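Support reply, case 0932

Customer input (verbatim):
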Amino acid sequence: MDQQAKHEPPPGWKELAWNGVCVAIPPGWEPGRIGPRHLIVESEAGPAMEIKWGRVRGRFLHRTHLKRLRKLTGARGANARECRLPAEWKPALAQFDPSGFCWSAGGAAATGAILFCPRSRTGGLVQFFHAAGDRGFLHPAGAVLQSLRFQGDAGVVRWAVFDIRAQLPERFALVRHRFEPGRFVLSFAADRCRLDLYRWAPAAVLLKDSDLTRFAHSVGELAPLRFEATEEPGMAAVEGHRPAAAGIGGRLARRLGLHSVCRARLWHLPERNRILGLRMQARAVIEPGLWRMVNRTYGLVDV
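Our regenerated output:
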């Protein structure tokens, strides 16, 4: 049974899923720094949690990762050392091979765990930042760890960050991500197929004196497509296409990588004041099943 199914997060907590890691975080916590396999989550008081992870090909050695951590913390005037895992965390980390560590520097401190997940062959580090001597973080941190899981053996990877969520086939690797005020872009690639997810806000401002078709044509990478409104009950949506080139010349252009097919869809969610978009580009054909799957799973996080 899925670990998440057995241990539901406390009410009001939200899912954070990013490039192979999935965890529930308390209200008021948000990603502050996002790397391909590195997250720093912040609260109003500042950094609250850090997670790093990666696939393991050979043997996972806790000592090796503790040495790396000592170098990093030593550069900041701290000295990470191995310590016992807090008793509150042990049930939450039963699915992992864990070891504990802690460090302090001045009035700041952190307590964390180096983890290995045998099921997904993933190694990771998670640490919680707190004031020196404070133990109030242990219980909420235990609830976070209870929800923590590494993905990678089910064929599908979940993505949930800020207010967007999606499920993509595992073969799609993250190529680029950008989170700007009013515009999010996540780009993925697999098997000569490019997949882009978009989110724009506030929709009311972006669509003022305009419509979804004209807005789609104003987006640089979507502008070459010809968009038309689609008939969808209760939703304003447009689709754009660039079909495959015909004839011998078209086949030669595709073989040389000089032409590709492209399909895109934008839809307006007025109750959330958002515009979402999906774009796929491939050498010869857009997989219908993949297109349906991403359209079905890409959306906004429930509130």
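We compared this against your earlier run and they match. Two observations from our side: Residues 1-6, 244-250 have pLDDT under 50 and may be disordered. The chain is about 20% helix and 45% strand. Please reopen the case if you see a mismatch on your end.
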